[in-house]
Specification:
mainly alpha, 19 helices, diguanylate cyclase, about 575 residues, about 5% strand, coiled coil
Length: about 575
Amino acid sequence: MLHLLGALVLVATMVLVGRLATTEWQSVHKASESLRLLEQLRRGLVAVEMVSRERGPTNGALGDALPMAQQRAQALQEARARTDQAFEALRQAVAAAPRSTADGIHLVQSLQTARSALVQARADVDQVLALPQAQRSAEAIRDAVQGMVAVVPLLSPVTNPLASAAQHAYPALGDDVQGARLAAALREYAGLLGSHFTAALVKAQPFSAAERRAIDETRGRIAQLRTLVELRLQLPDEAQAVSQAWSTVEARYFGVAQALLGQVLAQGDGEGHYGLSAAEFAALYVPEMNPILALRDALLAQARDRAQQEHQRALRVLVWALAGSGALLLVLGGALYVIQHRVLQPLAKTTRALKALANNDLQAPLPVPLADDEMSAVIGAVRALQGQTRRRQDLERERDLLIEQLREQSETDYLTGLPNRRAFITQARTALAQATRYGVDMAVLVLDVDWFKQLNDSLGHAAGDKALLAVADVVRAELREGDLAARFGGEEFVLLLSHCNREQGLQFANRLREKVAAAQVMGVADPEVRVTVSLGIADSAHGGWGLDALLSAADAAMYQAKNAGRNRAVAASVSPD
């Protein structure tokens, strides 16, 4: 029996050691996989960059007369060669990736589609370049430029899965990968903004209404991306290289380049006398976009460093685990030998009491010691263990009750009884992750009490608290099963509506707004006191399933409702990337 017990202990120890080694080996493998995926993502973003860069010499060439200047023709040829090299490098990386057949075929097909579109766009550009400069209409130039612009979105089915796979392999890379994608998108929209000027610069004419609208839309998107990048770079563990790269972007692109754009916009809105050609504009504008790419590369380098550190850490732990496990097995074998010959045999008389104790039978009788020897000490220890176990069980029950109470208090708003900000964010992220998986429409409502400060100032904070309670009661009464609601802070509430599109969300918001306006604030001296709310709605169909993006869009829509006169609901109009 004792030999069997020793064998079981050894087997259990080996299982635990094997489990530890397997876990660390998986960590090493995941870190290696994340490094490989990061390299593929980098190649994908470089391919996007090269397509965007090719538009610079292309736009310059569209403004040249025939025959094209040799320097311009050479620059265009070199840009196309760089793009082709980037596509080939990405193709090789995707083709060599050890992923599932379905994923690999999808990525290869998406890359082939983008490549075919690039070939067609170049052919359209060459067709325009073959015409004398005077015969190149503004519409033909715009179509040629837009053909090149349309290639970049076709690479999203390649870069997006690679980014997701890298984040899945090592979730700690999520912020850096997302930041790099934001920087790449900022560079693309910056290039797109410059392309909008091409036709007007070539033809030396003011902007058309369509061009001006496209310019304003692109500038708005750049402003949004700038805000998202700034939020991303506020993380406390940001590398100095990343911060310096962003400072350079602020100084050059959002400083020098924006000043240049302002001058060209002023002329385009006026007589159209720009004083520079499309090629000259590109020569001034394109270099100021390069710091954005430096920011992207800094973020990718930071992600790569994190993955390498994780790889080295897991490898060290694996080596130490294997070495420690061998030593542990030796020590355990020796200990079992000593226990068997010097401890276990004397304890045979107390086996039944110990078994009862293992089954939580604290009333099991113990043998009476016959002498003051080692056996007496063992019996006394078992008796003490029974008492300690009884006290520990009592303490554990009290601890579990206290932990549950503390958990509820930490996740509940003390005034309204609704979940607080932290609880809402945790539950909302889980709900949005499930909605993303199954394609369920979701909507976020941000609700803010109108004139709340004036209410506090005129009737006192007690009246303000009563008003918040009245709003919370209406919100709680209107919630459906599966919806979430929380007090987000101050006079602001937030709701997450499941299976809800924009129209349904707007209907729900207006119904909620009307019921709040009709609710009486109980406990206030003036029975005529009423409160109104302004609401902003953002839905997943237009804002994606990211919680931060939905909250930001809904919050902006709420401020639109405020600015429009309050006591109303406004749906966000921002589209996803």
